[in-house]
Amino acid sequence: MIFLIALASMAGFILIALADLAAGSGKARLKQYVLTGITGYIVLFLVIYFVLPAFIIQNILWLNAIGIFFAVYVLFASKQTGKETKKNTGLNLTALLFAVLFIGAVVCVIANFAVYQSTYDHVIKSTEEEAKPLDEEKTPIAIAPSSVRNMMNKKMSVVPETQLYQLGSLQTQTVGDTNEYIAPVEFDGFFKWVKGGETSGYFVIDATSLSAQPEFVENKLAYVPSAYFHKDLERIIYSRYPTYIREGEARLEIDEDGKAWYVQTVYQPKLFTGKANGDDIQVVVVNPYNGESEIYDAAEAPAFIENTIAPEMASKLNTYYGEYSGGFWNRYFGKAGVKIPNDNGTEHGVTAVFSEDGSIQYFTDFKSPKENIDSALGYSMVDGRTGEVTFYGGEKNNGIMDSSGAVQVVEKEYPEKKWEGKMPVLYNIDGNPTWVISVLDANGIFKKYAYVRAADSDYVVFGDDAESTLQAYRLQLSTDPSTAESTGDAPVQQVSGEVTRLYIAGESSGTKTIQFLLEGQDTIYSISSADAPYAIFLKEGDQVSFEAAMHEDASSATLEQISIVGLN
Asked: What stretches pass through the bilayer (predicted)?
């Protein structure tokens, strides 16, 4: 296919040569055209072979411009200057073709501005007022990818002939019931590929367990991104699907039988532009053992593939959605409805998170186009298989800090250690928008989790693991009367028992928060006097009963009503 593309790129050269020869330029000029044409074809072939430009209109234009320059060389290098009319025929056609190329380039530039509204219209999108409350079992908190890469690099010594390889791109995937990170080992340069021929396999690690260690799976793969020539995965995809633009890198995914596949997001752009249709994204799936491939609509790919949408494509869809709802000029001048995606994600501004059904979603929060405004306008989740952008706004997300502000809050806690906040993701924890952030040292080693209440930076809880930090955070929320109804979708339980410990805290507004323990239970129950005025008379030894919306094994619960035996 590359041979044919190089030949098509010589179309302008061939037209000029034929026109000039038809005007009677002579055999000497014919020889020059043949020799120069062969040279031009070789140059274009090499350019296409190594650059791999998608065969779309704007690339056809500049490739043909290169070919036409070779024709110009023949016209001006010719010694047959006596017959100017013959030369003028070629020069006139050259000027005409350059004019066509220039007009085509202008059309492409104008089209790129004009289609922004259309790119927004073609994004698959929906809006939700509020995300579902966090269920730590169904939507577990993932480890920061930089920490995972650090652990995998330390295990590279277990790879056979490890001197040939380096760690490849990290992929988030659900295999069976396990949320995993997967990263192949790739060749570390041309001569390492010549020596090895095949890669050794890939690393896999539980994506949600801090105590997990990477496991190396030996699995020899021949057609990989770091191979060269006929085994270069990118070149294989290009030669079979040259009219598609490749978005991001090809990434490894593992099916339920442990077989490896490389997945590459591709799309055919809008006419005269490089812009994607959000509702028409494809994916190429390549068998790395024999090089065979298939192309699918993103949502129709084999079921084991969670990420038909590359992080780079998810980031692009967020940009289309947030910035160009009113077209190009509105983005930079009127700015009505413009939302700018933050770039604090782990990959190309987005962060992969696990959803309840095991699929992968890409998280991004949005900020105002106005400078010096740190509040978030909401956030999006981009479906890893369909590319659908779901935007979460709503009243509870009004005025919350954005991811940059949350990271700054965390980093100010440990300035002397120079720890960094990474992978900020906004969760709905019992009705409270909450930033969950991984705290890493300068080497990418995990140190702590931080839970930051998005509406109030004074509520920050640090912990060594996600579950205990979550419970400590819920406990802190329970002491705040303003969160008395922040129980989300937790199941309601009927509770009764004898009060064994009691603590009453006063607020500046006069409201009191009553906290107590029941005999034989570890849960801390909290209720505000604003909801239950008689609760201030509660004492140790009282028999109480109430309904509590609480998660299983929760360390705290906030109540709205309570019945105290003997007190009406």
From this structure: 33-52, 59-76, 96-116
Domain carrying residue 514: 492-564
As a residue count, the chain comes to 568
Quick one: which H or E segment has residue 75?
helix 57-77
The residues, ordered by sequence, that sit 6+ positions from 314 with a Cβ below 8 Å of its Cβ are: 348, 350, 362, 364, 382, 384, 387
**Domains identified in the chain, total number:** 4
In one letter, which amino acid is 493? Q
Token pair 């699995």 is at which residue? 219
Q: Is residue 327 in some structural domain? A: no
Same-domain pairing of 443 and 506: no
- Specify the pairing of strand 492-506 against strand 460-463: unpaired
pLDDT at residue 87 is higher than 70 = no
Per-residue pLDDT tens digits for 177-206? 788 999 999 999 999 999 999 999 999 999
Per the CB < 8 A criterion, the answer to whether 396 and 431 are in contact is: yes
98 and 15 in a common domain: yes
The pairs formed by 516-521 with CB atoms below 8 angstroms and a separation of 24 or more are 516/544, 518/544, 521/497
- Which of 434, 450, 479 marks a domain boundary? 479
Reading the block at residue 532, the tokens are 């239950």
Q: Specify the pLDDT at position 508.
A: 47
pLDDT grade for 486, boundaries at 50, 70 and 90:
very low
318, part of any domain: no
What share of the chain in percent tops pLDDT 70?
93
Q: Distances from the Cα of 431 to the Cαs of 131, 364, 532, 556, in angstroms?
A: 9, 19, 21, 15
How much helix, strand and coil, in percent to the nearest 5, is found in the chain? Answer: 35, 30, 35
pLDDT of residue 142 exceeding 70, the answer is yes
The first and second tokens of residue 549, run together, are 């919306």
φ/ψ of 71, rounded to 5, equals -65, -40
* pLDDT above 80 (res 66): yes
DSSP-derived secondary structure letter, 225: T
> What is 318-343 written as a DSSP string?
HHHHHH-TTHHHHHHTT-TT--EEP-
- Can you tell me the distance from the alpha carbon of 328 to that of 113, in angstroms, rounded to the nearest whole number? 6
The DSSP secondary structure of 396-459, one letter per residue, reads GGTT-B-HHHHHHHHHTT-TTTT-EEEEEEEEEETTEEEEEEEEE-TTS-EEEEEEEETT-TT-
**Residues 530-556: tens digit of each pLDDT:** 788 888 899 999 999 998 877 666 677
- Maximal CA-CA distance, the chain: 121
Closest Cα partner for 425 from 461, 449, 443, 445?
Answer: 449
How many of the other CB atoms lie within 10 Å of CB of 461? 21
